[in-house]
Amino acid sequence: MTDHHTRGPAPIERRVAALEELLGEAGLIPEGFIDETIRRYEEDIGPMNGARVVARAWSDPEYKARLLDDAPRAIAELGLGGEESQSLVVIENTKTVHNVVVCTLCSCYPWPLLGLPPTWYKDAPYRARVVREPRQVLSEMGCELPEDIEIHVWDSSAEKRYLVLPMRPDDSESLSLDELASLVSRDAMIGVARG
Description:
CATH class: Alpha Beta
CATH superfamily: Nitrile hydratase alpha /Thiocyanate hydrolase gamma
Strand content: 5-15%
Strand order of the largest sheet: 1-4
Structural class: mainly alpha
Order of helices and strands: HHHHEEHHHHEEHH
Largest sheet: 2 strands, parallel
CATH topology: Nitrile Hydratase, Chain A
Shape: globular
CATH architecture: Alpha-Beta Complex
């Protein structure tokens, strides 16, 4: 897929960069602070919440049933939620079905569970292509699926946001909730990775 940065920064990106520079020069933010904060929300803080939800679903069949039936209520049991998760629907991967999430209009995303959306999720090529050729896009992202696995593409919107419940890894029955959560990636909860 095309990296949107090869086209040059958009006007809003230039304004943000200028603002960051001014704040840095004024000593109001240390160098690298904004990049590190964004990285933490993209990779750690948000995805860690979603991973806790997945680990609980993997280890507790009754919780999993509640999560698939009424996701906002089930995640509230773990002290999670927020406006972006009030319309959350959790979709489960199986041995025969793989789910992938996109927002074709913008970048609707369950922030309380996954943190900030990755750049590629907001990029026009991903948003357009994953609907038309999901198997090809997933393959390009490193998620090779056998031809006999059906792919369902779910289009998030302000009215309904999706989270993929990945399949539990084999031989993980003896793992604790924390150990299970460490196996869950943000990309798996979007559906562009298997685990």
